[in-house]
Design a protein that fits this description.
alpha+beta
């Protein structure tokens, strides 16, 4: 018998039962620990008998706990266990100063996260000062000692920041900007002294390889057809859903499993309390499965394995258990403590057991949040909806969001005009661990951005404008002087640059972010891809203007080009390409990178000849009488004139003769006459070098 099963029979929580079992000499560590049936029966009998006299005295009218006469024994026992025995046991533990055993996987991950400092490709000096908790003056003076003169508003790259941090005795980590935004900005609201902590619903992320049944499993749980609405039955955007099981709420985040959407899946792990690793019993551990495990471990959240497709004839659970053990995930069947539930999204087998394990795990973690604290939420998804404007899917992490609240998110602000739950119903307020769709912002923020309530709409607007100004300044700094695409390719041919600048626009921010990462992953030592701007909505005049100024190409994903932008793009010679499938966009950019490299020029030495006589002929020019010392002289070869070890001229052979006959080539040891095209400054003793040019296509 498991601890949580015994707790259910005694009507107590597993967390409170564990110290009672330990005090009786039973070796248990978590709610999944096994107890011998005989020992469990003895403990149950002893537990009930030892409290029986106090139970008989419960109806006493002198007690503050008034109990109705029509309450049966079971109900009285339940009240007795909850209100008497547990409080008494807790009091004894305090008197003996015995701390209860820590619950499984209940460590607060946010403390660790806040201590770690993440820096992207560049960071503002003032921002770095705030991150490392050092005065700006000290940061600037340290940089001066390193030979770098900067102001607090200037940006430094990661390498410089790392050297600076080393000088200050601080460790920093390199991180992608989107991931850094989510990890660094999640600050626990539990520290707010004005907030009252209450139990919150667990946020659960379903993760795993593509087509292993994540969305279908959620679909079965929600009893709706979520998968039917996605292209090819593969989830394209993050969706947050809310379910109720045994009068308890669970918030589910469904993350896409395809490789191109690694960033979206990583963001899902950063906002979750429990990770559900969905593994197909017939396929086993795949590439994206390992990535999902790494994301969950990085977020320091407990993992529950959902072994899906158990109903298939070729299902092989033992193979999956073995593969899990190879990556240090030992399931209970193999003597470990990782919870593994065998389920089927088709038949529903084991689904209820999976949900029970989620609730038990969340109970052990004691998840709490403050509905009275300043409201804060994390953007799960964002898009531009026709007729409604910017629509933002937000998971409230603390506080309560209400209609009419002034809000700010990234460089956008507004007032909450409407809120919809995951079923599309209008709601007036949303508390902690509630997924909600918010309308009212004046723009589409990045997925993973933090949404906060401001004191006034005026204050929100002021801060948003400051952030917009800063963003524009950074864009201008990253942009080069105005250039056309023709000039860009000329630069590439002259090897002045091997950078392909892109502007990405899409229908929803999650896809735009995933496309950005996929395209930047194409970068090689020869050609790098740099996304200077990305956004949601139609391609507009502003995008074309930025592309023209920075020499970028615009990539549209499931979006349109407005007429004004199309006209300006033709005038400014800005290239715009639109795609509906992410792979087509990736392949097209890869081909463009290949074309940017051009052909590699290889020079092949053919031979050399010495000028022994010169003949000047009117209307023809100077003919050089030569002796071929080595190799051969070919009419198709290019010629280089060398005098006193200096190259005077490089060009083509106009005529090659042997005696009076025009020939194609002359071998070593023979004499010949050579006329060089457009060059007559030839002297006796000059050396002619013959060479050929071969162009070979370069590879990335």
């Amino acid at each position: 018998m498991r601890v949580h099963e015994l707790a259910k029979e005694l009507n107590v929580s597993a967390k409170d039962l564990i110290p009672l079992l330990v005090s009786e000499g039973l070796s248990v560590k978590s709610h999944m620990s096994a107890i011998d049936d005989d020992a469990a029966q003895l403990f149950k009998q002893h537990f009930l008998e030892s409290n029986a006299p106090e139970h008989d005295a419960l109806p006493s009218p002198t007690s503050n706990d008034v109990i109705s006469e029509d309450i049966d024994d079971d109900e009285a026992l339940e009240m007795y266990v909850d209100e008497k025995a547990i409080k008494y046991r807790k009091k004894r533990k305090k008197e003996k100063k015995q701390d209860p055993l820590p619950p499984l996987d209940s460590s607060d991950t946010t403390d660790v996260t806040v201590k770690e400092i993440f820096v992207a490709h560049e960071i503002q000096v003032k921002e770095l000062s705030d991150l490392v908790a050092q005065p700006v003056s000290k940061i600037i003076s340290t940089l001066m000692n390193l030979g770098l003169m900067v102001t607090q508003n200037q940006f430094i790259d990661y390498e410089t920041a790392a050297i600076l941090a080393h000088e200050l005795g601080i460790e920093i980590h390199h991180k992608e900007p989107e991931q850094t935004t989510v990890i660094e900005k999640i600050i626990p609201e539990e520290d707010d002294p004005t907030g009252t902590l209450v139990e919150k619903a667990p946020v659960v992320t379903f993760m795993g390889h593509v087509d292993h049944g994540k969305t279908s499993l959620i679909d079965y749980i929600r009893k709706t057809k979520v998968a039917a609405g996605e292209a090819g039955s593969i989830t394209q955007h993050i969706g947050a859903y809310e379910i109720t099981f045994n009068k308890k709420r669970i918030v589910i985040i469904d993350t896409p499993g395809h490789k191109a959407f690694t960033a979206m899946r990583s963001r899902g792990a950063n906002v979750t309390d429990i990770a559900i690793l969905v593994v197909a019993a017939d396929d086993g551990i795949m590439e994206q499965t390992r990535e999902a495990i790494n994301h969950a471990r990085a977020a320091k959240v407990p993992i529950i394995v959902a072994l899906n497709k158990i109903d298939k004839p070729n299902a092989d659970p033992e193979k999956v258990f073995r593969q899990l053990s190879e990556i240090n995930l030992m399931t209970e069947d193999w003597g470990g403590d990782t919870i593994c539930c065998k389920v089927s999204a088709i038949t529903g087998e084991g689904v209820d057991h999976l949900i029970e394990m989620i609730l038990i795990q969340s109970e052990m973690m004691e998840l709490k949040a403050s509905p009275d604290a300043p409201c804060k939420g994390i953007v799960i998804e964002s898009k531009m909806t026709r007729g409604r404007g910017p629509t933002v899917s937000v998971l409230i992490t603390a506080g309560t969001l209400k209609i009419g609240d002034p809000i700010i998110c990234d460089s956008f602000h507004g007032k909450v005009k409407a809120m919809l739950n995951d079923r599309g119903q209008n709601i007036a307020h949303a508390g902690p661990a509630t997924p909600v769709e918010v309308l009212g912002l004046d723009g589409v923020p990045d997925a993973g951005a933090i949404l906060k309530i401001m004191p006034t709409e005026k204050e929100a607007k002021r801060i948003a404008q400051e952030r917009q100004s800063e963003e524009r300044r950074r864009l201008l700094e990253s942009a080069n002087k105005p250039t056309t695409l023709e000039e860009l390719y000329k630069k590439i041919e002259s090897e002045e640059t091997h950078e392909l600048k892109l502007i990405i626009k899409g229908d929803v921010h999650g896809s735009v972010e995933a496309l950005r990462q996929s395209l930047e992953d194409l970068s090689t030592e020869k050609v790098s891809v740099s996304v200077i701007h990305m956004g949601v909505g139609d391609i507009n005049e502003s995008d074309v203007t930025l592309a023209s100024a920075s020499g970028a190409v615009i990539i549209g994903f499931c979006t349109k080009i407005d007429k004004r932008a199309r006209d300006i793009s033709k005038k400014e010679n800005v290239q715009i390409k639109t795609f509906a499938i992410i792979y087509e966009a990736i392949d097209n950019v890869r081909m463009a990178m290949q074309g940017m490299l051009g052909d590699k020029v290889l020079e092949s030495y053919s031979g050399a000849a010495e000028v022994r006589e010169t003949f000047s002929i009117s209307k023809i020019g100077v003919i050089a009488g030569c002796y071929v010392n080595e190799g051969k002289a070919s009419k198709k070869s290019k010629i280089r004139v060398i005098r006193e070890n200096e190259v005077l001229f490089e060009g083509k052979i106009a005529s090659l003769k042997r005696f009076k006959d025009e020939v194609k080539e002359v071998k070593a040891g023979m004499e010949c006459g050579i006329k060089i095209e457009n060059f007559n400054d030839i002297e006796i003793g000059d050396i002619f070098e013959f060479y050929t040019i071969e162009r070979v296509a370069q590879t990335l």
